[in-house]
C-alpha cells in the first residue's frame, strides 16, 4: 500500500470515528435533557430554528423512536418576581403519536426559505425552519411519524 493510500485510509477512519463520537455525545445529551427511557433511540438530529412569538430560537431538533424534541442552543433569560435573572434552555417534547400532521411550506417571496409546520392533536402549532437539508429533514420526520400513527 502506498503512503498516499495509507494516509487516505487513516483520514477516513478518523472521520468515521469523529461521527460516531459525535452521535454518542448527542445521544447522551438528549437522554440527560429529556429523560429518555432505555428503549427509546435517537434516529435523527438536525440544527434548525423553532419560530416563537418572541422570534426564532436556534437549537437542535431530535427525532427519537418515541418523540420529537427541540432543545435551544443557548439558555433564555427570564426575570423572576424578585428581580433575579433565571436562565433555562427552551425545550419542547412531543410524543410522535400526538402529532396530527406535518406540513412543509415555503415563503412565496423567498422560495429558499422553507418551513416545517407540526400540528399536535390538541391544536398546538410548531414552526421549524433553517434546516441545512430541508428535504431530507422533512422526509425523515414524515416517515417516522407515519410509522407511529
From TrEMBL:
Q: Which residues does the UniProt record annotate as the domain GRAM?
A: 28-106
Q: Which Pfam families match?
A: GRAM (PF02893)
SMART domains, per the entry:
GRAM
Annotated family:
Belongs to the GEM family.
Q: What is this protein called?
A: GRAM domain family protein
> What species is this protein from?
Rhynchospora pubera
Amino acid at each position: 500500500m502506498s503512503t498516499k493510500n495509507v494516509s487516505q485510509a487513516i483520514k477516513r477512519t478518523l472521520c468515521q470515528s469523529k461521527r460516531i463520537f459525535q452521535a454518542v455525545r448527542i445521544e447522551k445529551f438528549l437522554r440527560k435533557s429529556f429523560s429518555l427511557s432505555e428503549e427509546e433511540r435517537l434516529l435523527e438530529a438536525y440544527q434548525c430554528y423553532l419560530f416563537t412569538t418572541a422570534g426564532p430560537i436556534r437549537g437542535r431538533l431530535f427525532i427519537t423512536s418515541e418523540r420529537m424534541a427541540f432543545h435551544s442552543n443557548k439558555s433564555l433569560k427570564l426575570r423572576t418576581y424578585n428581580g433575579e435573572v433565571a436562565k433555562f434552555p427552551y425545550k419542547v417534547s412531543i410524543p410522535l403519536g400526538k402529532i396530527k400532521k406535518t406540513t412543509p411550506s415555503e415563503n412565496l417571496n423567498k422560495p429558499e426559505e422553507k418551513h416545517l409546520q407540526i400540528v399536535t392533536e390538541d391544536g398546538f402549532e410548531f414552526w421549524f425552519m433553517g434546516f441545512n437539508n430541508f428535504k431530507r429533514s422533512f422526509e425523515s420526520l414524515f416517515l417516522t411519524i407515519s410509522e407511529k400513527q
